[in-house]
Specification:
Immunoglobulin-like; 146 residues; five-stranded antiparallel sheet
């Protein structure tokens, strides 16, 4: 009976360790601080950092304005309209997910996440370009290496 209990305890511990230990290649993430910005029409778009994890590139950003009140999402008028992404000056046609949080009337923080499935090598010149923020047309373009 002791052998069965000891063997059972061994297999439970072994199974628990296998399940709770993630595969490092899938779970490993790479986070890089960027701190680059572009300003136009009184609005500053700043890329704070990016993170690569699970085949996705997530870019964390801050939008600020000293004088303009930044409007939140409205039906038919998204906060950040038509973000464009480029790798080595070639426009990417990728699906993306995004979200932002209002800090106050003059500051939002958020992220944009895109799939890296079609990107083969690891080092690229990346460009994040936006034509409209909070209903204000302009040109915000931030370049950085990923």
């Amino acid at each position: 009976m002791k052998k069965i209990l000891l063997l059972s305890a061994f297999f439970i511990l072994l199974f628990n360790n296998m399940v709770s230990t993630p595969i490092q290649a899938d779970q490993e993430k790479q986070t890089e601080n960027i701190e680059k910005s572009a300003s136009d029409k009184g609005i500053t778009f700043k890329v704070n950092s990016y993170e690569k994890k699970d085949g996705k590139l997530t870019i964390h950003y801050t939008v600020t304005s000293d004088h303009i009140v930044l409007r939140e999402n409205q039906i038919g008028n998204p906060f950040m309209e038509k973000p464009w992404f480029y790798i080595n000056n070639k426009r990417l046609n990728v699906w993306f997910d995004f979200n932002q949080t209002k800090v106050n009337n003059h500051k939002f923080t958020g992220y944009v996440s895109i799939s890296l499935d079609d990107i083969k090598s690891e080092h690229h010149n990346f460009t994040f370009k936006i034509d409209s923020i909070a209903g204000q047309g302009g040109n915000w373009k931030v370049n950085f290496n990923i």
